[in-house]
Structures are given as structure tokens and as C-alpha cells.
Amino acid sequence: MEATPNPVFCTIVPPHVLDKLARGEDPTRADRAARTIEHDALQRTRRRITTVRTAAAPTGAPSDKPQRTIYDAKNQETLPGRKVHSENDKPSKDATVNRAHAGLGATFELYLKVYGRHSIDDSGLPLNATVHYGEKYENAFWDGSRMVFGDGDGDLFLDFTIPVDVIGHELTHGVTQHTANLEYWAQSGALNESLSDVFGSLIKQYALGQSAAQADWLIGAGLLGPDVQGEALRSMKAPGTAYDDDKLGKDPQPATMDDYVNTSRDNGGVHINSGIPNHAFYLLATELGGNAWEKAGKIWYHTLTGGELSTEAQFTDFARLTVASARTLFGEGDETQTVLKAWSQVGVPTS
What we know:
Blueprint: E1 10-11, H1 15-22, H2 27-49, E2 68-72, E3 82-85, H3 95-115, E4 127-131, E5 140-142, E6 147-149, H4 164-177, H5 186-208, E7 218-219, E8 234-235, E9 244-245, E10 249-250, H6 266-269, H7 275-288, H8 296-305, H9 315-330, H10 334-345
Parallel strand pairs: 2-4, 4-6
Antiparallel strand pairs: 1-5, 2-3, 5-6, 7-8, 9-10
Helix pairs in contact: 1-2, 3-4, 3-5, 4-5, 5-7, 7-10, 8-9, 9-10
């Protein structure tokens, strides 16, 4: 019997960033952050007490074309909002609608063309998104059935449809929901977050035609406002360096197990300790060279979808399975040795 997917509510801006803003001296910014925190807490509670709603399985073979629909919440908090764009419509006059449509398509394309996966559930699940959600809402999230984007405040955060990797990140939570179904707590939750960062980055790299060497390995580049001292929400290349700002605080992500953060906040630090497996993937991909989605990405995808990853997997479990995936896909060659080396460099045992 297939396990019921975890009712996980996942946002792109980590709680520790919003907490810092809510405690800040600027009352307007603090109020906006507090409202976002309250909203996210309510959504999280709703997700815990409701069953994941999935679309009816389509009949016949799934299409190789995405089925995208964009809704406009008109700055209200009612979902899905008014339907404003369908799959075959001409480009909208609203750039936010067009970016959401393109980001959903970029995600669909990577998963199909590289990994042979038909949409989020591998059965052609329609991809729905709501834009202009809430009033200056400072987040984006996957609610189990759709993407939802806030406009940001135009000050600290810009429009959440701008970074395509944010869209890919959130939709990948849906892929995880339909495959390994990782618990959203502590190390399994950090793996859940890391997998979304990994494939979000790969979606951006694939869309831009960038090699591992050319990629910036940033999550959310272009999202932070012009006065923020930082370049993104996270860095896979150098966790802990994405931002250092008097309003947002300092990026707390560790790159290795030496700096692992034990905390009860943020579901046991899921957005913080994800820096460790993120960095392992970066080390693997750049050491192998070429396009990261071809070898490193296939190893991670095989591990996520192979059926061996438990819902409560720890870093060591995931690391061990990536080694097994590398051997299955590439034998005992450079790929497997490089996986072993990457995990060793971040301090995660593979046996």
C-alpha cells in the first residue's frame, strides 16, 4: 500500500529570516514580516489537518507537453484566485504571469527531457500557479497542489516569480511528496529542502544552458531588494555567504558537519542544515564537470526516486544511497569515487 504523502507546507524564505525582520526596528518591515509569519503558520496548520488533495489520475499515457494554468489572487489570500492564463494562451500583459508560466515550463522540461518524468507526479499532473497572492506577501510556497507567489514588498524582496530556481525548488517539493515523501523535520527535512535546492538549481542551469563551471550555484538570485547586502537566499558553492545584512541577518547555513546546527526552530533547522548536502552536490557536480544535470543530477534523481530512501532518512542514509546509485548508473569509475569524495569533504560518512 502506497504511503500517504506528508502534508508538508514549504516556503522559499526561511523562518529565521522572517523572524529577524519581525524583531527589527523598522515598524513597517516588522509588521509585514509578522503578517507573513502568521500566514505561513496558518497554512502549515491547515496542511497538517487536511489530506493532500491530488488530481485524478489522467487516463492513457501522460503527455510530453505541460498543462499550465495561472490564476491571479488580486492581492487577496483566497486560492486559487481568478483564472487569467491557460496553456495555449498568448503571452499576458502581466510579466509576473508570464514568468510563472515559463518557470512551470522550465521545471516540466528538465524533469521530462533529462529524467523521463512526466510532471511532478510522473503521471502528467497539471501545473497550477497563483500569482499576486496577498498584499506585499514576502514568500512563495508549494501547498501540495499548486505554486503560490507573493509580490514581495519591493524593498527587501522583489517579485517571487523572478528567480526560476525558486519555482523549480517549490515544485520539487511536489516531486519529493510523490516519491521518497521525506519527513519535514531535522535531517530528513534538511534533505527535503536540499533536494529542492539541487533540482531548482539544475532547472535554472538547464534553462540557461550553463555548465557546472558556469553556474552561480545561488538559490534566489535576483530576489533580494537593491538595498539588501546579499546576492541570494542560499549559496550551494559557499553556504553561509549568501547574505550578511543588518535587516535580514547573516546567512546561517553550514557547509560541513563540523558546523551542524542543533535547533528546535525551523522544524529542526531544515533550511539551515540543508547547506551540507547542498555543498556535497556542488562539490560532486563541479568535480565531474560538464552539465550538472547529466551525471550528478542523475545520481541524485535515482536516489530520490529509486524506492530505497526512507521517509526518515538521515544524511548518512542518503549519502550511502547516492554511492549505490552512482555504482548502478556508472559502475566503479570516476563518478562513484567523486561521490565518495564529496561526502567525505562535508563530513558525512557513506558507510
